[in-house]
Amino acid sequence: xxxxxxxxxxxxxxxxxxxxxxxxxxxxxxxxxxxxxxxxxxxxxxxxxxxxxxxxxxxxxxxxxxxxxxxxxxxxxxxxxxxxxxxxxxxxxxxxxxxxxxxxxxxxxxxxxxxxxxxxxxxxxxxxxxxxxxxxxxxxxxxxxxxxxxxxxxxxxxxxxxxxxxxxxxxxxxxxxxxxxxxxxxxxxxxxxxxx
Length: 196
Fold this sequence. Notes:
Elements: E1 4-11, H1 16-26, E2 38-47, H2 52-65, E3 69-78, E4 85-92, H3 94-104, E5 122-127, H4 131-140, E6 145-150, E7 152-158, E8 164-171
Antiparallel strand pairs: 1-2, 1-7, 3-4, 3-6, 4-5, 7-8
């Protein structure tokens, strides 16, 4: 049956999520339509579909051990010239994100993997586009600010069409997530309730 491509991330809530996705589209990033605005906890990872029950059980345990935490985004940063990325900076909540991503990738669990770069929580707003467009993204979003209480993270699967879709949401501390994951243009209308 092959493999599935999975990712684990924290959704940036509305209205910020759609605003940043639209700006990413506007900067000319061709992948933007299929990527809900997020902070990565596990980058795209190939997995055997038979492992999904074990992966979901593992993520449930990771979430149960965590607690909701304040998240704040402010201003832009870039990984250039090492990587062609412009991002919104995580200025509060980075330590909690680091704690979560280590546990998601824990060597005792089903999602163990090495990272290409050291973990640095961020929200990508431009990736692998022209230098001029990345300069534009860096400048135009320099004053961007957003804050919320992060109460959950989610497991996503990338479809054959390149679109990332939520499979399941995990509430931190075993509670109820405070914000629904951002939908994508090919999903149900934004007014439809999200279900797990």
